[in-house]
Write a structure and sequence with these properties.
5-stranded parallel beta sheet, 9 strands, 2 domains, 9 helices, binds zinc ion, 244 residues, single chain, Rossmann fold, alpha/beta
Length: 244
């Protein structure tokens, strides 16, 4: 007989109370690892109107009241290669701390609750054939030992009953963290940094590309471009958080 993880956690917490990583309160029967219920419940979706294409929030709450299809300046000037992006949460506390623990401190137990946050904001588009994750470069994957986006993608696939095939997308170049670069450097760095290794798996398919954080959108856009070039019919993007 195996003891469910949440029971084990409850027993462990009773013996060695663990503090919530945010407020320090001792965790007891809280369902989310590392966070107490009140802290976790502070993670709420972005509510302001947003660009219908890239989901960038508009500063004015009335931005879309006259023309609901109004795109942001970037999407009008350079339409993205993806069809639509969904970025439901802002990269802010307490979600930010959760993502840092998950991604940089190996707390993969957070993958499920984080995927549940995404799933809680609505179903995926009806015509999706498969879910893909933004790949890590093999060297980074060796260092981190897991691809955080793939863990999210697998939980979403299970929840939405959609396949997550072995990735037909590969990262061919190791790029420095996107946040340290200017826009121009970032775009230059990303050019041709993904390649499709299994074109048959994506040809004519409508794909949902999952990533953890949408910074400028350059990474998911480059992936979408590569997938479209290799014959994908359409690429939707879904990330957990967005830099705002
Ligand atoms: Zn707390
Ligand atoms: Zn836009």
């Amino acid at each position: 007989m195996t003891i469910p993880a949440r029971w084990l956690r409850r027993i462990l917490h009773a013996v060695f109370p663990m503090p919530c990583r945010l407020c320090g309160q001792a965790l007891r029967d809280d369902p989310i690892p590392f966070f107490c219920r009140p802290c976790w419940s502070r993670i709420t979706p972005i509510e302001s109107p947003a660009c219908p294409r890239c989901a960038r929030p508009f500063p004015s709450p009335h931005a879309l009241s006259h023309s609901p299809g109004h795109l942001c300046g970037d999407c009008r000037r350079r339409p993205p290669a993806y069809h639509l992006a969904r970025t439901p949460f802002a990269y802010q506390s307490p979600l930010k701390e959760a993502i840092v623990l998950f991604k940089y401190h190996g707390k993969t137990q957070l993958a499920l609750p984080l995927a549940q946050l995404i799933a809680g904001t609505g179903a995926p588009p009806a015509d999706i054939d498969a879910i893909l994750a933004v790949p890590l470069h093999p060297r980074r994957l060796r260092e981190r030992e897991f691809n955080q986006s793939l863990l999210l993608a697998r939980h979403l696939g299970r929840r939405w009953n959609l396949p997550v095939p072995p990735s037909p997308l590969r990262r061919t170049r190791l790029t420095p963290p996107q946040t340290t670069l200017t826009r121009r450097e970032r775009l230059k760095n990303l050019r041709r940094c993904f390649a499709v290794t299994a074109p048959a798996a994506i040809e004519g398919k409508t794909l949902l590309l999952v990533d953890d954080v949408f910074t400028t959108g350059a990474t998911v856009n480059e992936c979408a471009k590569t997938l479209r070039r290799a014959g994908a019919k359409a690429v939707y993007v879904c990330t957990l958080a967005r830099m705002v």
